[in-house]
Amino acid sequence: MRVLLLSALFVFGLVTSAQAEEALSLTPEEVYEMTQAQGDDMLFIDVRDPVEIMFIGFTDSVDRNIPFQLVDRHEWNDEKGVFTMNINENFVSQVDEALEEKGLDRDALIVTMCRSGSARGKPSADYLLERGFTNVKYVDNGFQGGTVKEGEKKGFRVKNGWQNSGLPWSTKANPEKIYRP
């Protein structure tokens, strides 16, 4: 039915292929509820580099940590003052493997989560959609949330996101779920 609807929208010019393939966001609370209600029928992936998780925190609600980008400690980005991050060349195959372990296929719901939602959460979800996965979403504002723009806590990530929504998380990562090359 979805294919027929999208086909009709394309024919009448109401939607472009880019719009049809763009990942939609979910709030952290929506994702948590989904993991509780339908956790066996979906794949929830933390797409952060595992070192980042070590310093920021982790939720055991995710099925697995599969980094979308990995820090390259041999390349420095002078403009941003950080190490370069490159796409994990095994990302798609690792997602396929995680789906297979749960008895799911590329049509199952996949939710990705990064630190803020925009730098890797949405891009990783769009990346999967472009590679044949059909039902991919991402966590809006990610794990740590957005920065406060004014006041005493200006610049700190203390609003929204998983960590600031009263959802379960820990400073310790689950070693059975964390990425290891």
Describe the structure.
The structure is a single chain. α4 links the parallel β2 and β3. This protein has one domain: Oxidized Rhodanese, domain 1 (3-Layer(aba) Sandwich). It is globular. The termini are far apart. It has six helices and seven strands, in the order ααβαβαβββαβαβ. The strands form two sheets. Strands 1-7-6-2-3 form a five-stranded parallel β-sheet. A two-stranded antiparallel sheet has the order 4-5. The N terminus is likely disordered. It is of the alpha/beta class.
At a glance:
With 181 residues, the protein is an alpha/beta fold. It is built from six helices and seven strands, in the order ααβαβαβββαβαβ. It has helices spanning 2-11, 17-20, 28-38, 50-56, 91-101, 121-130; strands spanning 24-26, 42-46, 64-65, 69-77, 82-87, 109-113, 136-139.
Rounded to the nearest angstrom, the distance between the terminal CA atoms is 40 Å
Q: Pick out the low-confidence regions.
A: 1-20
Mean pLDDT: 89
State the helical fraction.
25-40%
Rg over CA atoms, rounded to whole Å, is: 17 Å
- The CATH architecture name reads 3-Layer(aba) Sandwich
Q: Do you know the CATH topology?
A: Oxidized Rhodanese, domain 1
Residue fraction in strands? 15-25%
Oligomeric state of the chains in view: single chain
Assigned CATH class? Alpha Beta
CATH superfamily: Rhodanese-like domain
Number of helices: 6
The succession of helices and strands, N to C, reads HHEHEHEEEHEHE
